[in-house]
Structures are given as C-alpha cells and as structure tokens.
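Operator note (shift B, R.M.): manual run for Sporulation protein requested after the automated queue skipped it. Running by hand, logging everything below so the morning shift can see what happened. Input copied straight from the record, untouched. If output looks odd, do not overwrite the archive copy; leave it for review.
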Amino acid sequence: MDGIDVSGTVKEVARVDRVFGEPVVRNGVTVIPVARIGGGGGGGSGKQEGERPGEGNGGGFGLGAAPAGVFVIKDGDVRWRPAVDINKIIAGGQMVAVVALLTARAIVRARSATCAHKRR
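Run finished. Output pasted below as returned.
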C-alpha cells in the first residue's frame, strides 16, 4: 500500500456520515446519533544507505469510533444528550476505591508506627 492508497482510504473512511448517523424520526421527535472518530496514519521510506541497501515502503491507517451522544430535535428545540459509557464509570469508581484503600492502609501503618515508637 503506497501513500496514494492510504490517502484514498482515509478519504473514504473519514466522512461526515461516519460521525453523524441517519436521523430517526418518531412521533415528531428527530434523533441524530453522533460518534467520536479518531484516527492515525503511518508512513515509510525507501533505500537505506550503508550496510545493506534495500528497498522498502510502508503505510498504514487506523480508525476508531465510539458513541458520543445524540442530538434530539423536538418542537424546534435542539438538545444534546451525551452517551454514557458505563465501563468508564465503573473503571473510575474502581480507581477511586483502590486509592482510598491504599491511603487508609498508609494512615493505619503510620499510626501503628507512631504508637509503637511511643511505647518504647
């Protein structure tokens, strides 16, 4: 895959319809899904001077998408409703719990060391 192929792939994949989904209309309410898109690319090079000259090339492209939320249109008003990623909420809660437990353990150890020192 050369640079031109990668460029064509990027143009094909990174389109507006990848971010904004098809509107859904029910009972006078329009919902437009929105995704968060991220991507990256790579490159390559040719002949290397020195030890073993060779030819080469490279390329690459990656794309990721996640739900961001929806636009809700009702009676002429537009509202944004963000998507809730329950996995991130759970992971954040777990991190808070681990930090709290480590902090509590450090406090208990410090108090135990202080009490043991006073007894001597």
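Quick read of the result: The CA atoms of residues 109 and 115 lie 10 Å apart. The first strand starts at residue 24 and ends at 26.
Leaving this for review. - R.M.
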